[in-house]
Structures are given as structure tokens and as C-alpha cells.
């Protein structure tokens, strides 16, 4: 591996370790000891909050970690904290950045500093959780300073430098530290960090208090006042000047940091560029691969080099012009595209910089590569150099812009359908009868013995990639036993979606649509209304017997709550079905608002200073009841007849009256730390302990459909908790108070539900 940094005298004691980029980002944040981190999990940045939570449980920092309802909320939390003058930290990736995007210009436009790590990842759609720079490029016009880190060492160092730059009186802007998801974020490398956090805190300096903030009632200020154009242009001019000044401040801070750490971070990392005739411009980790190829080609007498920026906002135009003064051909490799622009962002910014130098004759080629985490090998870097060498020898670029690594399709490789499509009568048994009582208007459901429904085909084919013991698909399939006829199903991002649709394969036998967590209900409501309107206009000739179902889980009713409520208030004819595994399991078992109080997750750890989740679980069915939709229910696979009857009711209401919401409790042995064989026992114990009561709310009337007290089957809450490793600490004597508080809340909700059952107007 080529040497990355020139060594200078080290003045502060450091420790050598072997860490990943995410670990170093978290470690830098802990050493700085920020006041607030508002966060929401998204792969691959999720680890940062998890690591900080583990550190907090061990008492290693005092950062207040605030779990948001989505990335938009996390950005709001961070902004609210920064206007108080607090030091604020965040981390996100891909669609998380997109969801918070409208908040980012507010942060920079009102000049409140903070630091956010952008662990770069491909933006949907289609969904791909691996790394490219499509998210990074969306941040270029937000007004934030943007630093880029090639290695875990750089992640640590630039995070420390970032706060000092952000708070500098000539800047006062938020800063992004961007590094490559799953390359830099997860791959461990040899690193050094300061042994004493006081060294870091002394370098960063005291929190500035002489700028306006909202913390002192004696000095009231107005933040974000409406402006007309004359004032807005002045505001943006000042912001623009501050961003350009950040380039000079970066150089100043980098010099100071080099004296302290022995590691230098120039504006451009130039490798063998002194006499290079051909060069590559690459952001972040790909540059490290290319440096090895430079050594190989240099040994053959070929004058090549690599340019990689440490900062791209402000864009280092002057440094680019200087670096390319004698370069005959430059290939700009970009892990993202600017569709339709004949090259992505860095390509055009480099070309623009070179336009200011009338003597420059550098031929610039652009290649989009490495999308969706596609690896960049030494052979690829060598191919890039060869393209640039060819352009140098010809005196022009035969193809200035292209993609690299794409392959043409072949007709003989066309996918063959593995399962014949099933529809209509295939999913009708005629054995389920739903009738409406003329007097009470309540629905009556008759179902056959369960064995009679086993002949009904499954909606999801075998071969999905769910974990052993996963409760999602038994729960969903049991629910679908009560649904007659065709379905159109929308899946939120989450475990159920991810494990059934890995291109080019799909486990779904009927139409499946995917959309993101925050917008699934709105998307399906558009699908329903379009279907009905096309039918009304007689533009499609298909059966009316189609039920629209949205399947959500893994936090989808947190980040997607607003969309769900809006859909319910409009009362579209569809079913919202939530599988509740009490966490965000698809991103690594983080806390969701449905996680019970005291339960351990990867972001609510158990240790010296905390005891699992600090607040009670969200009562989502009751929230949906408040929207006045015609039918709300709870169910679980452990009570199959109850669930099938409710599914049949749900279909009737969705077809005849409007929106239905149902919540299914399902198990997750991997992250609940439970034995697979106890799946049904755990769900039954949750019901019998009254933690998860089975009931329905039909046109506003609440009915408990299974009462463990009446059947003398009620058990203590501890009988349910004992099955799960995530809750074992609650059964210890030192946590008795926490268990009692949890028990009291379960009892309060159960008693309230019984009163609602007894009184139809409640």
C-alpha cells in the first residue's frame, strides 16, 4: 500500500489500533463529547449510533442520543439543538440524507454549525444498500462544507477537524464528513487515535458562546425570519463567502492538526503528481486502490499519478488548476451520475476550473463506475489509466463520457418464469363467509376448520431468505388465509421486503410494489384510486375482486406514521398491515417506538448508566383508531382462528368502507435472543400477560376477542419476558423498579381497554 500521509513531529501521545471508519467516527464524537445526537438508523451509517450507545452504557461520554421517528425528524432535532448553541452530531446514508434534504439548507442558511457523517450509499431506486456517491452528490448544493475521508484514519482526523472548521468565526457552517459505505465504514485498518480525550477537546477549543443562539431568555432572538428577495440575496451572498472562506480555514486547521497528530491533510492528496502526464481523479477509497497501480506503472516508466480531494465544498479550483498544469490527460472516475449532463458533478467542476486557465490543454475523460458498491479493483484502475493514456496519445478523447463496468444483456440469458402466475379462483375457497348484521351493522364471520384452509396456496413462494424462526411469513400467510381472491401488495423497506425480492428473483406470486418506509401508505392509496378510476373509465378490464394491502414493519409505522395517518384520514379502500417485531430488525435490531420499555436493542444497551429503552412502547392501534377508520385489529399467529376471522373482516371493510389497520405480533429469535422453538409460546405469553391484547375496533366499537382473565389464563409479565434474552435484565432484583413501571403501564392499558370493551361510546 502506498504511503498516505507525510509524517511530521508528533506532540500528543497516541494509541495504535485496528478499527473501521464507523468505529473511528463514533470514537471521535465520544472524545469531543457532543451535547446532542439526533439519529435514525439506516445502513451502513447505523453502526455509529450503536457504538455511541454502547459507549454511553459504559459511561464513556455524555452525549444525549435522541432516537428520531425518521431522518427528517433527526435533522430537526439536530437543528433545534444547534440553535441553542449546543454541539451537535449526526450520521446518515443514502435515502436518509434524501429524507432530511430539505432541512439541510435551513441549517446552513441560518449559519448554525454541526457535524454530520455521511456514510455514502446508493440511493433508491431500485434499492441497493451498498456504497456509491449518489447521496454525496445531492449534498453538494446544500451549503454545507464537505470533507471526504479515504481511510478510517482520515475519518477520525477529519471528524475532529470538522467541528473546529464549523465553529470558526469566519465560517459558522455545518460540515459533512463523507466516506465510503462498506468500504471505509466497515473495513478495519491500522489507525492511531489520541490517548487522552482532553487533547482532542483542547484542539477543538471551548464551545463558542459569542454568536447568537436561543438559549438565553434575557437575549431573545428571531431565527429564520421570512425574507424578501433583496434581503435573501444578501443572506446567500454572506453564506457563499463563508463557504469559500472555509477553504482557507481548512488549510489553517489542517496545519495545526498536523503539528498535533503527525498527519497531514492537504486540500488535494496528490500521489506522484509532480511530473505526471496522465492522472486519475478519484474521491475516497478508490484512490487508495489506484495508488498501488501508480507504483506498478511507474516501475515501467509510465508517468502517472492520482488526485484525491480531502475537501470538495468549497471546490478546490485553484489547487486543481495547479495540479493539472502539465497533465496531458485526466480521467475523472465518479461513483454517481448527473443524468443527462454528459458527466457527473466532479467532471464538470474540474472542467469549469480548467476553463479559467487559458494555457491548460488537459484532456478530460469521465467514467461512472462502482455504483451500488460494485468493487473497484487494481485492474479497473489500470484500465482507467489506459483510457487516459490512449487519449493522450491520440490528442483527444474518443469517448469523453461513458459508464465503466456495465455489461450488455443477452437474449439467451432472459429469465425464465419459475412459478406459473396465480390469480382469481386459485385464491378463493368459498369457505369463508362474511355477513353484516342488519340491526347492529356488525360483521359476522364463519370460517371452516383450519385444516380446510391448508389447500389454499401461499401468497409467498418458498425460497426467501428470512432467518430461521422468523415470524413474519407464518404471520402474513396466516392472515392471507382469510383473504379471498387477488391482492396487490405493497411492502415497505424492511426484513419482509429485503428477503423476498433480491433481483433477479422474487418470492411473490402476485403483484408486489416496493416503496420507502416514509411513503408506503400514500403510494398504495394512489394505486387504489388509479385502479378504481381506470375501472370507472373502462380502460382496464379486470376483476373487481382485488384487495390492496400494505405490509409494514421494522419501524415503518414510526418513520411512516404521518403518511399512514394521512391515508387513514382520507379513508382509501386498503389494508395497512403491520408486523411488529419490536425493533428495526433489517438494519440491525435498533430501537423502534414499538420496542417495550426496558428492552435491550442495539441502540438501547444495558450497562452501568442505562437499562434498555427509556420510555414505553407506542400504542399504534389506538393512534389509528383516533383517525376514525372503519376497522382496527390486533392479531398473532398463536391464535390462528382469531387472526383469520379478522383478516376476513379486514377485507370486507377495505372493499366496502375504507381503510383498515391491523397489527400482528411476530417473533424475531435472532434479535430477541430467544430460542426458535419458543416462537408460539412467546406470542401466546405476550397475549396471556396482557402485554399484547387481542381486540378489534369495528366502526368505533371496541371488542376484546380474547380475554385471558375470563379464561383464568392470565400470567405475570415476567412469564413472557423470561423467554427473551433481550429482557432478562428486567428480571433481576436491581431492576425491580423498572419492571414494576412496565407492569403498571401494561395494566393501565389493559384496564382502559376493558372499559372501552364494556362501553360502546369509549
Overview features:
Rossmann fold, 762 residues, PFOR_II, THDP-binding, 4Fe-4S, 17% strand, 36% helix, 25 strands, alpha/beta
| Helix vs. strand class | alpha/beta
Please name the CATH topology of the largest domain. Answer: Rossmann fold
| Low-pLDDT runs | 1-9
Strand content bin = 15-25%
Number of strands: 25
**Main sheet, how many strands, which sense, barrel?**
8 strands, mixed
Mean pLDDT: 95
**Tally of helical segments:** 25
Outline the fold blueprint.
Layout: E1 14-19, H1 21-32, E2 36-39, H2 46-57, E3 64-67, H3 71-83, E4 88-92, H4 94-99, H5 104-109, E5 115-120, H6 134-138, E6 145-148, H7 152-167, E7 175-180, E8 189-194, H8 197-204, H9 229-261, E9 268-271, E10 278-281, H10 286-298, E11 304-309, E12 311-313, H11 317-323, E13 329-334, H12 345-355, E14 363-368, H13 378-394, E15 401-403, E16 433-436, E17 443-446, H14 450-453, H15 472-481, E18 486-492, H16 495-498, E19 512-515, H17 520-536, E20 546-553, H18 556-559, H19 561-570, E21 575-580, H20 620-625, E22 631-636, H21 640-656, E23 660-665, H22 669-672, H23 679-688, E24 694-698, E25 701-706, H24 717-721, H25 736-758
Helix pairs in contact: 1-2, 1-7, 1-8, 7-9, 10-13, 11-12, 15-21, 17-19
Write a short abstract of this structure.
The chain has 762 residues and is of the alpha/beta class. 36% of the residues lie in helices and 17% in strands.
